[in-house]
Specification:
With 186 residues, the protein is of the alpha+beta class. Helices cover 33% and strands 30% of the residues. It is globular, with a radius of gyration of 16 Å.
Length: 186
């Protein structure tokens, strides 16, 4: 399962960078080893809004009763959006696999190869994936990612007959992109 998730995320990052964008932070909650879906963070404003928006990725995981979550983000992108110092290699795709008992940080550094530049100045790049450093059990996570991990395992208490469904609807209304697997689709 892990290799498949890494492959999907690396492919999405490669496609996004080729289009001149860095894919937004992504959460993939799992329940008993089954993928709930993919949730991309809503459009963010720099600063507190970015910190909050990334941490709120946890809502669907918590509502689904996830026992594992995978989060993916780009080092420089999250540091810039959240006004935090860059920690670790950059550019770098980071993925964390977390359970209530702990987490393991995986880093996938890359260099950028310029493919094209638009008249407006946007760069289209291809990642040249570098050697992967050893995974880091309990590796340091930037604050919004750590918050998302922590909140993923905090039950959501909603007075509603379908707390998962209503959470999905509310997240989508807030601008999060939610793609549920067939088993969890409303």
């Amino acid at each position: 399962m892990w290799d498949g998730l890494v492959g999907v995320v690396k492919s999405a990052y490669t496609a996004g960078l080729g289009e001149g964008t860095v894919p937004r932070p992504l959460m993939m909650p799992l329940v008993r080893g089954e993928l709930v879906g993919l949730i991309w963070v809503r459009p963010l404003r720099v600063g507190q809004d970015a910190l909050t928006g990334i941490a709120e990725l946890a809502n669907i995981a918590a509502a689904a009763g996830a026992d594992e979550v995978v989060l993916a983000w780009e080092t420089h992108d999250v540091a810039t959006a959240c006004e935090l110092p860059i920690v670790g290699p950059a550019p770098c795709l980071n993925m964390v696999l977390a359970t209530q008992g702990g987490h393991v940080l995986h880093r996938f550094p890359y260099s950028e190869q310029l493919l094209a530049r638009s008249p407006e100045g946007w760069a289209s790049v291809a990642p040249d994936w570098r050697p992967v450093p050893a995974s880091q059990p309990s590796g340091e996570l930037v604050p919004p990612i750590q918050a998302a991990v922590n909140f993923s395992f905090t039950p959501i208490e909603l007075d509603h007959p379908d707390p998962f469904g209503v959470t999905v609807v509310l997240m989508e209304e807030d601008g999060y992109s939610v793609r549920l697997t067939e088993a969890f689709a409303r």
